[in-house]
Amino acid sequence: MRTNDRTRKPGQSLLRLLPPFLRDHLPDFIKYGVIGVGGTLLQTGTLLLYVEKGHGSPLVGSTLGFVLSLLFSYAANARWTFKQSKRSASVLVKYTVVSLVGLLLNLLILYLFDQVFGWWYVYGQITSIVLVPIHNFILNKAWAFRTPKRERR
Prior knowledge:
single chain; mainly alpha; about 80% helix; membrane; GtrA_DPMS_TM; GtrA family protein; transmembrane
């Protein structure tokens, strides 16, 4: 064990695994994650209910869950994570664009796992649960909820 390994706090090694942007905005990322858990449960619950109750395709179920999750997470993130005192149509549009790109990434992963690899669709959803929120947080923080320079003063 190196000297600096003994003085390092538990968890610091894990933090180094995060991209620098996430480390720099860790409190917001944690808030985003808490809201994301609720959104993920909403989306995944909708997906599972839709598919397991015999209604059809995992892609349709995930899309329905996405819509519910989008509405919930926009309202919660605007208020708590990104502290938007007033919600604007432009922020909602940007948030929706980021979320739609995340949805496409989620659907691509589901498609690959289910249709290409022939694996259980839930494995694809688990993979999406890890990758898509990181992608979405970075774009939301850097673009959708970014405060214009003239307002930062």
